Amino acid sequence: MSSMAKPNRYSTPKTLVLALLVATALWGCGKKGPPLPPESILPAPVSDLQAWPREGMVFFGWSVPTRNVDGSKLQDLLGFKVFRLDRSLISRDCPECPRNFKEVAEVDIDYPRSARIEGGRVLWADPTVKPETEYTYFVVGYNSYKSPSPESNRVKIFWNEPPPAPEEAKVQSENQALEISWRPAPPKGETPLATGFNLYRRSEGERFGFLPLNPAPLKETRFVDGGLQNGRKYYYEVRAVRNFQGTLIESPASAVVEGIPDKKTPPSPPRGLLAVYQEGGVALRWDVNPEPDIAGYDIYRRAEGEETFHKVNSGLIKEPHFLDPSVDPKKSYTYRLKAIDSSPTPRESDFSQDADVSPLPTKP
Prior knowledge:
It contains one helix and 22 strands. It is mainly beta.
């Protein structure tokens, strides 16, 4: 009998066990390689960094990413870092010499302090800009592992002294429109003059937005803001604009002015009024007024022997017809109309032409 031990029928060679474990792992996770550690998953980069030079500083805005670079949901974003590269436009330093971006701000998502976060967007301002300087910015987000995102798009601006604020802003009311006018500030020393103007509007309870009403700087010192709601209050401010090497630098804002659109022209007098006796009273008909904002009509009546007209209806008549039952069928009457518009302060037309009506003849 050989001294070599016989293999146990329940044992499995080690190489087979190892092969089974590897195959099971690969089958179970569905991947051909090990999963990435969490700290290696980066937030997606900001792609819409924008800048607005105004109020003696530069404002920046960007959207908060919601995904990681691998497309997975971003759930642990902690904040952003803002980097800036400066280049003096009047310095004699070598323009080709290398310069490095420097971190100028950090925005914590939970405690933004120097920034504002609303509606998934970050608003941050850089008050440290200096005249005659070129600036380039980018933003980097970071997660709970301090893993930084790729750089955002870069924004370049050229900063210089802004022009002075416009003066004597005024608002004139029109029907569904407001006309805003202003005067450029006179030159003071070496302060640059404006090359255009931007107009901003807000409604009651709102803030002025970052985009002006005008798509391009206005050359005139007046602007008609149409399509407004009569009776609603609107607020405006004007900013002068200076174009410095392609960067539009705004002045401080003018004094805020307000206005309420209102219709000043009354409706035209109703036309075509007819009055006839019929069963139940006097029937009146007339033509519809051509104005689109007519709220209704008031009817006035004077009986024979009376000197003054009296309003017949208690509420506005909406349709161009009316039956007056409160008449004496033995008397003659004279009727006239007024059209009333739907302005916040309703305006009424002049009277229509009179329409007379006499009793029906009695049968012998």
